[in-house]
Inverse folding.
């Protein structure tokens, strides 16, 4: 018998400081950005865009980091592994994520690239366009996957964005093997359809061979399986993983697991900023799942968390999520 987990969720991902600012569509056009997309940028671009942005809100971010923070707000016991530098933004990240109750044991990078940052521009329609400088977080590798921490978590949750650096793919496979050896589950979020397109074969192999739980939105799951119908993609996911939670914006979400198909309604809300919607959904879903709640309730928690996060500026909840879900 495996020991009882001491963490409900362990997130592994890019440790990024998010800088959110409002912007007009003309700003995106001036800087050659594709609205709604995530682009990787270099140091010079990061400095130029940061200098031109309006006033911003800075917080510990990255996809899995946001999921961890939201899950902690729902009462889950949460840890996070990701690489920051020994610099000012590294201090911001570490203080911010630990202040919401997330354990963050990864040693910092010294003398290398600076801490990563994601410059997020939110247009008046609520859409977010992301420009990511990966900096120190691309150095995250197998050596940073702490065996004791992974073994202690009921679910290890991996963010697809971390697939870009090759060392991280090796880290993902090590984490998955350690989790399964300890009798735990592995979850992965596809994160971004463009990211899936860059690493489709590696993603497909990981999902089929290593993942127990898959999170994806409609465009990501269609990109993964290169099909045109959501229903077809959902059936392919059903064969690959034990649970696939597939989000469809205002259409809610579809959960497929074995012979079950659960439809979950989207929670009514006013879209202000879509940043972190998928991250929050995964947080709610996993916080409920690790409590042993049924899939329909997991989906409801996910929908409530996502609706709260998109109802205001920024990727972190501002309301009491425990009260909203009735925990």
């Amino acid at each position: 018998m495996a020991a009882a987990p001491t963490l409900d969720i362990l997130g592994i991902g890019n440790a990024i400081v998010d800088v959110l600012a409002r912007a007009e569509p003309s700003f995106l056009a001036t800087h050659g950005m594709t609205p709604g997309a995530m682009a990787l940028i270099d140091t010079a671009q990061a400095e130029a865009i940061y200098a031109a942005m309006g006033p911003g809100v800075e917080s510990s971010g990255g996809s899995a980091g946001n999921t961890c923070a939201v899950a902690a707000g729902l009462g889950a016991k949460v840890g996070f592994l990701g690489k920051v530098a020994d610099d000012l933004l590294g201090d911001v990240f570490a203080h911010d994520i630990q202040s919401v109750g997330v354990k963050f044991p990864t040693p910092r990078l010294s003398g290398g690239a600076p801490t990563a940052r994601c410059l997020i521009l939110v247009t008046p329609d609520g859409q977010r366009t992301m420009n990511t400088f990966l900096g120190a977080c691309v150095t995250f590798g197998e050596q940073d996957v702490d065996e004791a921490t992974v073994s202690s978590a009921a679910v290890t949750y991996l963010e697809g964005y971390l697939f870009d650096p090759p060392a991280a793919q090796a880290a993902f496979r090590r984490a998955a093997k350690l989790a399964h050896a300890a009798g735990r589950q592995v979850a992965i979020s596809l994160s971004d359809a463009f990211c899936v397109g860059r690493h489709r074969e590696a993603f497909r192999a990981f999902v089929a061979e290593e993942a127990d739980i898959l999170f994806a939105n409609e465009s990501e799951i269609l990109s993964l399986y290169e099909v045109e119908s959501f229903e077809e993609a959902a059936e392919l996911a059903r064969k690959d993983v034990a649970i696939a939670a597939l989000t469809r914006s205002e259409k809610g979400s579809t959960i497929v697991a074995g012979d079950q198909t659960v439809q979950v309604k989207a929670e009514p809300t006013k879209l202000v900023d879509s940043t972190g919607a998928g991250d929050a959904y995964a947080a709610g879903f996993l916080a409920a799942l690790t409590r042993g709640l049924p899939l329909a309730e997991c989906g409801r928690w996910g929908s409530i968390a996502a609706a709260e996060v998109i109802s205001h500026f920024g990727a972190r909840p501002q309301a009491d999520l425990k009260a909203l879900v009735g925990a």
